[in-house]
Amino acid sequence: MxxxxxxxxxxxxxxxxxxxxVAAPGREGxxxxxxxIGWDGAQRDHVKECLARGELPNLARxxxxxxxxxxxxxxxxxxxxGWAQILTGYEPEVTGVYSNGxxxxxxxxxxxxxxxxxxxxxxxxxTVAVIGKxxxxxxxxxxxxxxxxxxxxxQIQQKLRKTGGSLIEENGRRYLVVPGKPFYYARAAxxxxxxxxxxxxxxxxxxxxxxxxxxxxxxFFFVHFAxxxxxxxxxxxxxxxxxxxxxxxxxxxxxIVEKLNELGLYExxxxxxxxxxxxxxxxKSHGDAPYVFLxxxxxxxxxxxxxxxxxxxxxxxxxxxxAGFTPPLDGRPLTEPYAPPLW
Length: 343
Hints:
The protein is α/β, with parallel strands linked by helices. The chain is 35% helix and 17% strand. The chain has twelve helices and eleven strands. The strands form two sheets. The protein has an eight-stranded mixed sheet with strand order 7-3-8-1-9-10-2-11, with helices on both faces. The protein has a three-stranded antiparallel sheet with strand order 4-6-5. The radius of gyration is 20 Å and the shape is globular. The relative contact order is 0.22. Mean pLDDT is 90; it is low at 1-23.
């Protein structure tokens, strides 16, 4: 992708920002709604280069109204760990979600969805998740499956690796125990949790339908687009297909903003766009891909940060006090200037 540069908007985008930035009534205060949009697997440098070529106009417009900052991943760069951290603000020692292969249900009450439902009241506030992926952003319950006698040891080990499960023996029979997926408990508290929708078009259309449905209640939406990650794995980070997937995610992000405008909600809605992990430069993997981003129309975002600081930002902007949670969150809101520790 060529020589890497500092994470700054090109000069023409800075000018665009100045031209597009409009004082949004009430946007500095607590919002009525927040929409978190996930571009799964969007590498920061590739996003920068697409912005420089003018290929992501909707992301640029959001940044013009608020901020575009670097987000760094300090732990595992995969999907389960990524979205679990983004949607809780906790490290895996708290959530139990270490990686795609080592995980369990996030303990009850720790997700942004549950905290907002508790704070505002489930009858007065809506929480919605519309998700492209299935297995790695999931809410399936735990399972116990008997091991068939004809299965070979190699087949059993393959299933263990694939599911993250464990073997137990009861009354002379062996069982594969598969842990519940990360959002198993959160799902019960939410108005909508739909995953496995696949293509960006299916995700985007469903998100628009649900925005219409919940227009009369304050809400938090999580909208997850998966095509960037899928095309990266299939064609590689430097491929045209990967770029086209970023453009697709940007197009649907723009349509979500258009819908919010159509419903008369945009001026009281904060929109955040981020990613769970990037991609290894030029590769079809993301084993060491810690460089992502946050683009937003939130004018109070003042600094770069880590993946664990997105949830505290959302909670704080809704008027909750992230410092008061137990256990303590592992990040601080990006609306607070960073104060380095004394030692």
